[in-house]
From TrEMBL:
Residues 150-297 form the Aspartate/ornithine carbamoyltransferase Asp/Orn-binding domain. It comes from Marinomonas transparens. It comes from the Bacteria. It is an enzyme of class 2 (transferase). The gene is argF. GO terms for cellular component: cytoplasm. Its main location: cytoplasm. Carbamoyl phosphate binds at residues 53-56, 80, 104, 131-134, 259-260, 287. NCBIfam families: orni_carb_tr, PRK00779.1. InterPro entries: Asp/Orn_carbamoyltranf_P-bd, Asp/Orn_carbamoylTrfase, Asp/Orn_carbamoylTrfase_sf, Asp_carbamoyltransf_Asp/Orn-bd, Orn/put_carbamltrans, OTCase_ArgI. The lineage of its organism: Bacteria, Pseudomonadati, Pseudomonadota, Gammaproteobacteria, Oceanospirillales. This is Ornithine carbamoyltransferase. Residues 4-144 form the Aspartate/ornithine carbamoyltransferase carbamoyl-P binding domain.
């Protein structure tokens, strides 16, 4: 039987996602109480990184250690993957030795191919198209601060990137309204938008989108791999900064999230990161708890 993978949020049903989010909060409590809980004793997670990371690496590695298991950091620079060994071959070999594999890479197709040839669960830890692990943490964070997100209005400000595509999937699974405010030419995946047109609206003004918002989210103008476009994007994204004026248009209890790292003064003003309604540090910490819930779901069921 082929293993369960987590390549996009849609690999979970709506009910499974909701259960996983609640479990993440339980695991957070267990961790904060200092209770030893080692459901993955002697299990190994291979972590393949073809792009940089702070939060993803630390949260998966710490999570595996806390669960009594072990995590292996594999950079494409130091493995045969970086020297052209086929993904199919690497998947067969690596998955024969470990219990799960986490991959951060460029093409989404790479994680799909890896998963096809892997005998153990594969987790997408960010591709150019999706960042589902971050959404687990974001949705956990919203729930912990404000309760159920169903029926709420969420505003995505900026690039229609991997995070934005994952927000569309979250809107479909958790039943909230998503308004994407982006410059023309920077819209999210058109097929995904068409598929979920009952949940997603695209506008080209952040001010128009922000009215009555319950949650405002943004991300960098240029993602990893788009460094050459940085200068052009700073010009194209003028008017798409989340700042105190924009926050003031939203509901007074609207939360602010950013997956981090943030570029203060570009997509977000420094004052918003420190705004009383900004929950970016909880959001980052929840990467740990949400991914522990994911590992438990994939490996202990
Ligand atoms: N948010 C996030 O995925 O951060 P890292 O790139 O540091 O892993
Ligand atoms: N959109 C960003 C997210 C970083 C966590 C990127 O892909 O670089």
């Amino acid at each position: 039987m082929s293993p369960r993978h987590f390549l996009t949020l849609k690999d979970l049903s709506s009910d499974e996602l909701k259960r996983l989010l609640s479990r993440a909060s339980e695991l957070k409590k267990i961790h904060h109480e200092g209770t030893l809980f080692e459901p993955l004793k002697n299990r190994v997670l291979a972590m393949i990184f073809e792009k940089s990371s702070t939060r993803t690496r630390v949260s998966f590695e710490a999570g595996m250690a806390q669960f009594g298991g072990h995590a292996l950091f594999l950079s494409s620079r130091d493995t045969q993957l970086g020297r052209g060994e086929p993904v199919e071959d690497s998947a067969r070999v690596i998955s024969s030795m470990v219990d799960a594999v986490m991959i951060r890479t460029f093409d989404h197709e790479t994680v799909e191919t890896f998963a096809k040839y892997s005998s153990v669960p594969v987790i997408n830890a960010l591709t150019d198209d999706y960042h589902p692990c971050q959404l687990l943490a974001d949705m956990q964070t919203y729930q912990e601060h404000r309760g159920d997100i169903e029926g709420k209005k969420v505003i995505w400000v900026g690039d229609g990137n991997n995070m934005c595509n994952s927000y569309i999937n979250a809107a479909a699974l958790l039943n909230f309204q998503l308004v994407v405010a982006c410059p023309k030419g920077y819209e999210p995946n058109a097929e995904l938008v068409a598929e979920h047109q009952d949940r997603v609206t695209i506008v080209h003004s952040a001010q128009e989108a922000a009215k009555n918002a319950d949650l405002i989210v943004t991300d960098v103008f240029a993602s990893m791999g788009q460094e050459d476009e940085q200068e052009q994007r700073v010009k194209d994204f003028e008017g798409f900064q989340v700042n105190a004026e924009l926050m003031a248009l939203a509901n007074s209890d609207a939360l602010f999230m950013h997956c981090l790292p943030a570029h203060r003064g570009e997509e977000v003003s420094a004052e918003v990161i420190d705004h009383p309604n900004a929950v970016v540090w909880d959001e980052a910490e929840n990467r740990l708890h949400a991914q522990k819930a994911l590992l438990e779901f994939l490996l202990c069921n």
